[in-house]
Amino acid sequence: MNTPLVIQPYKSAGADVVAVRPYDPVAAEVARDVGALVEQAVPGVRVEHVGSTAVPGCAGKGVVDLMAVCHGVPLANVAAALETLGFGKQSGGHQHGDDRPMREGAVMVRGTWYRLHVHVLAPDAPAVASFRLFRDRLRADPALLATYVEQKRRLVESGVLDRASYSGGKGEFIMGVLRPPPQGDR
Question: Most CB contacts within 10 A, which of 27, 37, 47, 132?
Fold first, then answer.
């Protein structure tokens, strides 16, 4: 992207609307550029693209989820630096505490709003491994990816339209993907 990114309030992007949108490959560019912006602003933080927009072909809410892993930087300092960039505190959904802050914002790229969630995590936080494992399993298994997208569509078709209920409705599926496969009798 040639124009500088300006982080805007999350509400600017219609954050209260839950819908299953087709995969948008521009989201990967947004993730890369926002990640670089955050890494430049906060030395010691490494940003990774996670969530549905990090999986080619995965339909979803269209939120670009980023994981800011803090190496030697206090989480509170990173959360404050994100706010300086224009990110705000959570406005809805599952509320994360100060031990695992999340900040949200939005950027306009090529005439489209991209909502952003930045999950601020210590390197040893269980969520780091979970985000990576879920993303990587979806990338590696087209049948699993199709099942996940269908689960999301069923939730919306059943009338689940608020962020917290939508996230909760996906929870059992996600936990099933994250569980280690059963070991046979030895």
Answer: 27
Instruction: Confirm whether 184 is domain-assigned.
Output: no
185 is a domain residue: no
Total Cβ atoms within 10 A of residue 42: 22
The domain spanning residue 66 has which CATH number? 3.30.460.10
Structure tokens at 132: 């990576």
Instruction: Quote the domain boundaries for residue 55.
Output: 10-178
The tokens for 7 are: 């982080």
**Total domain count, the chain:** 1
Q: Does residue 58 form part of some domain?
A: yes
3-state secondary structure 84-133: HHCCEECCCCCCCCCCCCEEEEEEEECCEEEEEEEEEECCCCHHHHHHHH
- Residue 134 lies inside a defined structural domain of this protein: yes
Q: pLDDT for 156-185, tens place per residue?
A: 889 887 777 788 888 888 888 888 777 765
Closest CA to 9 of 94, 104, 82: 104
CA distance 100 to 68: 11
Question: Residue 54 corresponds to which amino acid?
Answer: A
Question: How many C-beta atoms surround the C-beta of residue 158 within 10 A?
Answer: 10
Q: Does residue 36 contact residue 141 with C-beta atoms inside 8 Å?
A: no
What pTM was computed for the model? Answer: 0.88
